[in-house]
Amino acid sequence: MIIKYFPPDGLRINNIDLKWKEDRTIIRNLLNNTHSAADQFIDLSKDFGGNDEYNIDLKRDVYTNLFNSKSLFFLNYSKNNLLRDVEIHSGIEVQLNNIIISFDLTLKQVIYKLGEISKRIKKVDINEYYFEDLKLIVADKKKMGNKGNTLGYVYFTDDTSHLMNL
Fold first, then answer.
1. 2 exposed, middle or buried (CB, 10 Å; 0-12, 13-18, 19+)?
2. Per-domain boundaries in the chain
3. What does pTM read for this prediction?
4. pLDDT of residue 149
């Protein structure tokens, strides 16, 4: 399966267009309600003197083996249930312009390919890189707690405010 990523508009999965800030219910319907909801609320206010601005309200739909592909990815939503970002963990090729990256490639190969369309790259951590103009992060399997230097994680987003300190 290929996910086509169109910064800054959104993505396409099997000819289904998903736009940033699109409503969660609409996306679920477009993808035939094949998700598992994995929402989580973490109240940190007790640790910050009653200040609730540090609370974490994670809204996430998990998709496994969508359209008969051996894949795992998450669609994450804002507190208002609008599409905010995508996390891909396995089994999907990602296409940006004429570049295709896959989980069979080493992280070094992925960085080289993405470097053909982006020169604004930052090393975030060992085995993790942020392509600022693409609003995209890649990491290898080792960074994700597994073995190997092949691609282990692809993340892209519409909202980079939480990435500004990378």
1. middle
2. 2-163
3. 0.90
4. 93
